[in-house]
Every structure is written in C-alpha cells, then in structure tokens.
Amino acid sequence: MALTDLQVKKAKASDKPQKLSDGGGLYLLVQPNGAKYWRLKYRFAGVEKLLALGVYPDVSLLDARERREKARKLLANEADPGAVKKAQKEASVAVIENSFEIVAREWFMKHAPNWADTHSCKVIRRLEVDAFPWIGARPIGEITAPELLAMLRRVESRGALDTAHRVHQNCGQVFRYAIATGRAQRDPSTDLRGALPPPNRQHYPTITDPKAIGELLRAIDGYSGTYSTRYALRLAPMLFVRPSELRKAEWCEFNLDKAEWRIPAKRMKMNALHIVPLSTQAVAILRELYCISGAGKYVFPSARTTTKPMSDNTINAALHRLGYKGEFVGHGFRHMASTLLNEQGWNRDAIERQLAHAERDGVRAAYNYAEYLPERKRMMQHWADYLDKLEAGADVIPLHKTA
User: Fold this and answer.
1) Is 357 a catalytic residue?
2) Is the predicted pLDDT of residue 170 greater than 90, yes or no?
3) Is 219 found in the same domain as 310?
C-alpha cells in the first residue's frame, strides 16, 4: 500500500531501523535516531542495488516518487540509475573545481609568495571585487570573450578604466595558468585587445625646474616635524626610491662603511634585490639618524611606536604642510631624478636600473641587481652634489655631466 504524507510525517523511531514501503521499490528508512531517508531498491543486470533519493523532510513524499519515476525511466533505457547519479555528481564536482574562482585562487597561491605584500593584496582584491561576483562560478573553459568584456565594462562604467585594464591582465594570467594545467583550451582575454579605451595615465605631481627644486630643498631643510619625517624628507630626493621602500627601510639593510643600501627582494615591487649606492651626503645623514633610531628595527619608525615604520602618508602630509599640496608628492622625487639625470647625459639604462623599473625578463632582473653599479655610484654622488648646489641657490648648473 502506498504511503501518505501523514504516515511519513508521523513515522516514529524504534530500537531498530524500519522500512515503510511506498511501492515500486521505494521505501522510507526510519533510523533509531529518528532520521528518515528515502531509498529505492532496484535490479540492474541481474544484481540488486540500492539508490539514495534524499532525506525527509527536505525531500517530500511527492519528490521521492518523482525521483523514483526518473530512475525507472533510466532502467527502461538500460541505464543504471546509480551509475548515472555518480557520474552527475562527479561532473558537478569537476565544474566546481574548474570554476574561474577556484583556478584563480590556485594561481594566486602559486605566485603570491614571490610578490610584494602590497602587490599581492591588490591583485586578489581586484579579482574578488571585479571578477569573482560575475564569472567566479563559471567553468573556466566555458568563459567567452563577450562574457569577459561585459565584466570589464562594469568596471569601466564606474570610471575605473585603469583598474579594468589591470583586471583584464590578471584574468589573462589566470586563463594561461588554466591552459597550462589542462583546464582550459584557450585564453579569451586575448580577443579583447583594443576593446577597452587606453587608460588615462596620471603622472605623479613633480618638479623638474632647477630653481623650483632648490626652493623645495630649502623648504625641506626648514621642516620642523618629527625627526623620522625630517630625515626621510632629506634622504628622499637623494635616493629617489619608492616611498614604500624608503619608509619601511631597516637598519640591517645598510652598510654605511661600504656606502650601500641593499633592499631585499621581498620589499621590492618586482621581487628582485635592489642596490642603492649612498652618496657621502646620504651616509652622513644616516649616521646622524643612527644615533637616534639605530637601536630599533626601522630607520624611520612610527611616531607612535618604534616597532612599526612611519605610515604611508607621512611624507605626503609633510609636503602638504610645506605648501606643496597638489604640486608635489613623495613619488615625484623619482620622476624629478629621472628627468634631470637623463637631461644631464647619464646612461639611460643605468638610470632605469637605479629606479628599479620593471625588467621584462624576470630571471634577468633577479640576477642583474648590480648591473651598471660603478656608473650608478658615480651618478648617485653627482646627483647629491647637484642637489646641494640647487639648495644653495646656484644660478647656473651645467646640463651635461663632466667626464
């Protein structure tokens, strides 16, 4: 006799499992703990088998009967319902494991240890905000170029064109990783070249007029803030490293007797050791500073605690106080040095190496940190001397370096 909804609902547990039959091989299994499971007993190729159809009440009596009929149709077509269910489950798992988000996170975990923390945080943040909500659950091998473009258009529509280009680049890296690991056949991001407008490159505010640079250096010399900020401001023009590299500098990285600062790869944007030759002026400033902060880890400790470096906005805030808001930022020292050193005739490759700009060949970058080092040492001393003359108010400075 077929079951009723009321019988299923009121079925009580006993000290042994109970089977309440609904006919056609379908029955409700009531366990001693009160749990109720739908089961279907059937024969395939002369062998008796059992198929789980779900748990009551999540699967109602009507649902269980519908699943029984689907299984009977498979049997009528000489297919094993149990084998079909297993194959479907495996296919679902494969889809999840090969989703864009799963592959992207796997790619990220492979590469993040070789990136600077700030870079890795930006990469995963872009993917989580701008990619995963739209294509994260999609099988990576099925994502099309139009689908990818629609996702990038959403980023572009909020005015974040540069971010859209970076998301495009990161997605391409994920697709290429999927191809290499056998989970995709091609990279649809390559079909989108030219689909987005070129990014609007906004250069950091800087100063390249020698007279104006002299005024800036004299303003810095008169800065009356904390000692960490004063010394960082004095060194920033001479060393022209990235602001994050300067503020996180550690005393263990310096060899003042050798007049050299070696920034470890883990703190560099391109993950390669970087050597900064120190001019006599820079060494003198650092020796002064060592008497103040040398007992701690950081060269420029935070004003609140010596266990942390100064904050990332300290230099810019100080420049604002000096009257340069909107006219100059800490990163501008790099463009200032690059522009004038090129004008003065220094080797462009030596300048680029000293700026630690991106090396297309990552392996080459890892081993060529000392490239042009003798010339870079001469250049850094020349640059510090040049800045001294500008600060002193020199009227005429030769554009070309002397032999």
Assistant:
1) yes
2) yes
3) yes
Mean pLDDT across 161-168: 91
Residue 398 lies in a domain: no
Measuring CA to CA, which residue among 229, 230, 232, 236 is closest to residue 213? 236
Residue 399 falls within a domain, yes or no?
Answer: no
Catalytic residue chosen out of the listed positions 110, 258, 287, 367: 367
Picking from 89, 117, 147, the residue at the C-terminal end of a domain is 89
Q: Is 335 a catalytic residue?
A: no
Please indicate, yes or no, if residue 403 is contained in any of the structural domains. no
- What is the rounded CA–CA span in Å between residue 233 and residue 387? 13
Q: What is the pLDDT of residues 277-303, one digit of tens each?
A: 999 999 999 999 999 999 999 999 998
Residue 367 appears among annotated catalytic residues = yes
| Residue 212 CB coordination number (10 Å) | 14
Mean pLDDT computed over 227-248: 94
pLDDT digits (tens, 9 = 90+) for 249-270: 999 999 999 999 999 988 887 7
d(CA 138, CA 178): 13
Provide the H-helix boundaries in 2-60: 5-10
% helix, strand, coil for the chain, step of 5 = 55, 10, 35
Among the listed residues 331, 335, 353, 376, the single catalytic one is 331
- Flag whether 117 is in a domain: yes
For residue 110, CA distances in Å to 114, 120, 182, 185, 267 come to 8, 11, 16, 21, 18
Phi-psi region of 39 (alpha: psi -120 to 50; beta: other; left: phi over 0): beta
Q: Which candidate in 334, 335, 353, 376 is catalytic? A: 334
Catalytic residue among 269, 321, 378, 382: 269
Instruction: Based on the fold, state whether residues 185 and 296 are members of the same structural domain.
Output: no
- 10 Å CB burial of residue 254 (0-12, 13-18, 19+) is buried
Catalytic residue among 67, 126, 168, 242: 242
Report yes or no: 261 and 278 within 8 Å, Cβ to Cβ.
yes
The one catalytic residue in 43, 348, 357, 364 is 357
369-388 residue pLDDT tens: 778 899 999 999 999 999 99
How many structural domains does the chain have? Answer: 3
Q: Is 360 an annotated catalytic residue? A: no
Tokens at 181, concatenated: 């690991």
- 131: domain range? 100-192
**269 flagged as catalytic:** yes
* Burial class of residue 90 in the structure, from the number of CB atoms within 10 Å of its CB (0-12 exposed, 13-18 middle, 19+ buried): exposed
